[in-house]
Amino acid sequence: MGKHQFVTHEVIDGINVVTFSQSLLHAEAMDEVHTIYNSLLPEKLVLDFDSVRQLDGVQGALGGHLLRLHKQTRHDGQQLAVCGLHASLVEIFHDLLLDVTLEVYSTVDLALTAMRDGTHGCERLTVKDRCRVAVIAFAFWAIFTALFGLIFA
Hints:
The chain is an alpha/beta fold. The chain contains six helices and eight strands; from the N terminus they run ββββαββαβααβαα. It has helices spanning 27-40, 59-75, 87-95, 98-101, 108-117, 127-151, and strands at residues 2-3, 7-12, 15-20, 24-25, 44-48, 54-55, 79-83, 103-105. Strands 1-2-3-5-7-8 form a six-stranded mixed beta sheet, with helices on both faces. Strands 4-6 form a two-stranded parallel ribbon. The chain is elongated and about 70 Å long.
């Protein structure tokens, strides 16, 4: 649909897809994403990182941009997904807990399918939910260990 310096924008099946067009991700590219979002307020937005191999600058800046966009889309009742992460970005997303916060898909097609079918976000556990699962698992382990100790003592 639109061509910018660092990203391309198109609409596929009613879902806005922003593709980063360079292998080095600049802060200006994220500024273009924010401009597209603010001008269109799309109901569904996919960010395709397939071309990106490295970041220009601090990885925390990417995290800040993405978290701000995530917060804005949630506030507006919209959906956001990212896809096409290469190994170096997967590690950065993991370090910044973006893989827990954001909906991450391996390809644009998977992100589009999840958004189109309404399964977007259905399989994701929040950090709070993961903590609850860990606490429950630990409690069961502690009870099992205590009972095992009583039985075989």
